[in-house]
Antitoxin
Amino acid sequence: METVNIHEAKTQLSKLLDGVSKGKPFIIAKAGKPIARVVSIDAPEAGQARRLGFLTGQVQVPDDFDRMGEEEILAQFGVDDAPAA
């Protein structure tokens, strides 16, 4: 994410906001210290973005998941005998 100082943000605000509307947020800094983040109004708020693992503990995968439907699949490929487990 691009960081700009206050003076640059004031002089190039239109250009920076055009970038924001195209999905390029930026940070405004004062003396090199970030003080504000400018993002699109449609951007998800902090904590609203989907995270991996959001269903942890709510879903169980069966032990035979990788063999589910094995007989049907083999039958579709014309294999009569299923391999020994």
